[in-house]
Specification:
- By secondary structure, this protein is mainly beta.
- Helices cover 5% and strands 36% of the residues.
- The chain is built from 2 helices and 26 strands.
- The strands form 6 sheets. A 5-stranded antiparallel beta sheet has the order 1-2-26-25-24, with helices on one face. It has a 5-stranded mixed beta sheet with strand order 3-4-5-6-7, with no helix packed on it.
- The longest helix has 18 residues.
- It is globular and about 60 Å long.
- The chain binds calcium ion.
- Calcium ion binds next to strand 18.
């Protein structure tokens, strides 16, 4: 870890010259001495739609760019393109970038330090009609200069292959992937602007999947009659954040609302998120998709009238939807009073929200982190507890509590 810290110190000094370096900002609200001040370092800039980040124990940072692929930044600052479009160590001729879709999540295998295995969520043309989102497994060499051994462990995640009455192709592909403390890979998907996907028992859109590293259903998934066994929860709209609460390991997701009600939800194995944008006779639903047609009452993100046992949100970002995306728990005493809180990135609302949870998982307070107003696309906790941020402005930051 000493080497790791030393490397980061050197990196920060270099960046101070290149990028203006770090900024410190006092917390704006609360005034508690238990609230951390933050140091923000720009690690990379000028990227093309950075989407997700994974950090290895040696300090190497893997990151995706939506229309390019997967790269790694070593602690000495060297960047290598590993997988994706031309110029990558391993080219993926089937990679397609369209609308919101392309290369999304990246996750390191729990045994990455010894097996150099990682996973990427991407849109592929290998299935011709319709094309699909996939989860791809890759193995790197010890120096992280080559990628090989590609195995597509999930090949049938729905993709919106054509525009419809409510929007263009490529919409609502989900795409965050994370290993939980249970050792299984969680995969978040989206509803593709389809009225029927979220509640479909067999199609994988509008779900959270839980699988093994080989893509098989996790053996502990609650068996639901008629359901694909890979489904962990269903009835979602477009989940692009998932994180696991320290101590309990319970997954919390963040998902976009339509024109209202972004939601954070604590998942229960086999649970229904309650999104069902079909068959709303009181609404005018273009193409049969009612998702944008109603209000929190007439087209709720969690329809407890249709689904009395639906998982209730832990937090709703009320008013107009602000495009809730990534989520990550802050862990470590260096975060002071924020230790154990959930950071949630808001895109349209250009803010990072810090949520305090009670023992039951309900949100008891929400404050904006004193960070720049940008579209927060990706959030990842590094092994040292620091928070990495990918922004739609093409930057990746490292955020730490100030010492
Ligand atoms: Ca819901």
């Amino acid at each position: 870890m000493l080497t790791h810290r030393t490397s980061w110190t050197a990196c920060a000094l270099v960046l101070a010259a290149c990028n203006g370096g770090s900024s410190r900002a006092p917390v704006e609200s609360g005034g508690s001495t238990d609230t951390p001040e933050l140091t923000r370092t720009v690690v990379l800039q000028g990227l093309s739609s950075p989407w997700d980040i994974a950090v290895a124990a040696d300090g190497s940072m893997f990151f995706t760019e939506r229309c390019r692929g997967l790269s790694v930044r070593r602690p000495d600052g060297a960047v290598t393109r590993l997988f994706g479009t031309s110029g990558s160590a391993l080219v993926a001729p089937d990679l397609l970038c369209n609308g919101q879709s392309g290369v999304h999540g990246v996750a390191l295998d729990p045994a990455f330090a010894t097996n150099r295995t990682l996973y990427v969520y991407m849109l592929s043309t290998l299935n011709a009609s319709p094309r699909t989102n996939r989860v791809v497994r890759l193995v790197l060499d010890a120096a992280y200069t080559t990628a090989g051994g590609r195995v597509d462990i999930i090949t049938d995640i729905p993709y919106k292959d054509a525009a419809n009455a409510v929007g263009g192709s490529g919409a609502h592909s989900g795409g965050r992937i994370r290993f939980g403390p249970d050792g299984f890979l969680y995969v978040t998907t989206g509803d593709n602007h389809s009225a029927t996907l979220p509640q479909s028992p067999t199609l994988l859109g509008g779900k959270v999947l839980r699988v093994t590293g080989a893509g098989a259903a996790a053996p502990g998934n609650t068996p639901l009659a008629g359901f694909d066994a890979r489904i962990f929860t269903y009835g979602h709209r477009n989940v692009q954040g998932i994180a696991f609460r320290p101590g309990t390991g319970q997954p919390f997701i963040a998902e976009h609302g339509p024109n209202h009600s972004d939601e954070v939800t604590a998942l229960v194995n086999g649970g229904n998120g309650g999104w069902d944008p079909k068959d709303r006779p009181t609404l005018s639903c273009p193409g049969g998709y009612c998702g944008y047609a109603g209000s929190p009452t007439t087209m709720p993100m969690t329809d407890v009238a249709r689904f009395p046992n639906a998982m209730r949100p832990a937090w709703t970002n009320d008013g107009s939807s602000q495009g809730m995306g990534p989520a990550e728990f802050l862990v470590g005493t260096q975060w002071k009073g924020w230790n154990g809180r959930l950071a949630v990135g808001i895109m349209g609302g250009t803010r990072l929200v810090i949520l305090e949870l009670d023992g039951a998982g309900a949100v008891t307070s929400a404050v904006n982190a004193p960070l720049p107003g940008v579209r927060y696309r990706g959030l990842t906790r590094a092994p040292d507890g620091s928070l990495y941020v990918a922004t739609d402005a093409g930057e990746i930051w490292r955020v730490t509590p100030s010492p």
